[in-house]
């Protein structure tokens, strides 16, 4: 199931386009929805991040991070109340941010 979900995420294909090597798309989608509702990814991610940092000989918790942002144009279907204007980028839309540690996690 995990491989099938990762395939959809990495390739960007529709659920219905899962190759025949994977279980039926309905089954994979069912698990994906249930795991998202249970916030499985949010529970697993800190554990995996900690293990990777320890494998790299680092402390389990990061002590430094990198912050970046990106302005994304808002589609006409996005409500005006949830959009803003980034004067520096001259973009009417939303601004998204990402924080990574020095390992890129």
From TrEMBL:
List each copy of the Transposase IS4-like domain by range: 60-103
> Where are the residues of the annotated region Disordered?
56-87
From the record, give the transmembrane residue ranges: none
Question: What species was this sequence derived from?
Answer: Pseudonocardia aurantiaca
Q: Which domain of life is it from?
A: Bacteria
* Start-end of Basic and acidic residues biased regions: 78-87
Q: What is this protein called?
A: Transposase
Q: Which residues form the Insertion element IS402-like domain?
A: 1-44
* Pfam families, sorted: DDE_Tnp_1, DUF4096
């Amino acid at each position: 199931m995990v491989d099938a979900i990762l395939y959809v995420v990495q390739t960007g294909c529709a659920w219905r386009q899962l190759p025949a090597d994977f279980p039926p798309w309905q089954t994979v989608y069912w698990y994906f929805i249930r795991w998202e509702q249970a916030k499985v990814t949010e529970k697993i991610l800190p554990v995996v991040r900690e293990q990777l940092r320890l494998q790299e000989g680092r402390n389990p918790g990061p002590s430094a991070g990198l912050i970046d942002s990106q302005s994304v144009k808002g589609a006409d279907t996005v409500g005006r109340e949830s959009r803003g204007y980034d004067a520096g980028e001259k973009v009417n839309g939303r601004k998204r941010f990402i924080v990574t540690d020095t390992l890129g996690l």
